[in-house]
Amino acid sequence: MTPAHDANAALTRRDLQHIWHPCTQMHDHEQVPLVPIVRGEGVWLIDADGRRYLDGISSWWTNLFGHANPRIAAGLAEQARTLEHVIFAGFTHPPAIELAEQLVQITPAGLDKVFFADNGSAAVEVALKMSFHYWLNQGHGEKTRFIALSGSYHGETLGALSVSDVALYRKTYAPLLLTPILAPSPDAYEGEPGESPEQTAARRLEAMRALLERHAHETCAVIVEPLVQCAGGMRMYHPSYLTGLRALCDQYQVHFIADEIAVGFGRTGTMFACEQAQVAPDFMCLSKGLTGGTLPLSAVLTTEHVYAAFYAEYSAGKAFLHSHSYTGNPLACRAALETLAIFRDEPVLERNRALSAHLAKALAPLRAHPHVADVRQHGMIAAVELVADKTTRRPFPAAERRGMHVYLHGLQHGALLRPLGNIVYFMPPYVITEAQIDQLVQVASDGITLAVKA
Hints:
Blueprint: H1 3-18, E1 37-41, E2 44-47, E3 52-55, H2 58-61, H3 70-80, H4 94-106, E4 113-117, H5 120-137, E5 145-149, H6 158-162, H7 167-173, E6 181-183, H8 197-215, E7 219-224, E8 228-229, E9 235-236, H9 240-252, E10 255-259, E11 283-286, E12 298-302, H10 304-308, H11 330-345, H12 348-363, E13 372-378, E14 381-386, H13 402-412, E15 415-416, E16 423-426, H14 434-453
Parallel strand pairs: 3-15, 5-6, 5-7, 7-10, 10-11
Antiparallel strand pairs: 1-2, 2-3, 4-12, 8-9, 11-12, 13-14, 14-16
């Protein structure tokens, strides 16, 4: 074994001695390699052995402009020499002020107030609590429930998990969770034969209307991931659903929460997915790409109208009750400012449109694969649905873990692909080249061929 291999193995041994990893059955690592990454460089992750992995999933959908991005790194270094952190209750600082100002400028009109948190799940918690507390302050304490979509995922803290529809999580933690009202997803993949995505959206809107007719009196808000239900299987739907949902929320007087944590900041082809439906939600949750993938930070944007429901004398007891020690952290805010500066100074969305078109072209041959039921895409998010039977769309049994075969093949061939069950997806950094897209798709295609034979 070479010294480099010794370094890889040594780091793995040290890790497994003490660290419990997320979203992982640790027993898997008796066979599945743990990859010690020591350096990042653009779209590449580099392990202690010097092997390079093309990051096809932006390290859990966070990295927009490449690992160790020099512009963001320089901003962080400067900020670290100036102010690393300060309590955000009773204090403020320029990076947070500037970031709030810029977020208000670039998000849909009417979202004029910004509440900072630490991560995506925390942002969802904030939005849920803020919606409930708004109605309480307005004298509607009977509004205590939330409507979410089937197949939804909004995070893994208890509130966020309560409005998620992931069977494994709900079965395990059911005694701790609120019970959401589930509306059928407008997922185009679940459309009736011959039905267009827009027609599926219209049909599902009628189902949402029926739920609101029955439950609006007890409902605080409807929460959705606009255009793409990411962790729920990269389920994609037509923008008209959002247009109709905004109208229904107005009609039935419930809030509209847009969870743009994964789909915001250019992922779906526009800066924010809601733009494609020309709607503004009552709450918009942002995280992941907000800092370009460098530091944890999230933000919940809401309206002056919501803010006013909390603005009162202290004795009124209407203040919003939520805090984190690292709220508005200056380092994270500075990273976010540098990220937004890249969007401002470079033709990011224009470049993404060209990359998205190339990704679509590269994936097109997979549509003919005998075990591929669907190839779908919204901007810089694409997914390939593997099935046991293409005609009936019968899925592979989950226990067979076909996606794991694709993942392992990717690692062996220099690519980070982390399928969601039997769904192989692509969510690369925006600095990827067309040649690297071709490389990533080729590795995935070969992995799929091997996986369906396993």
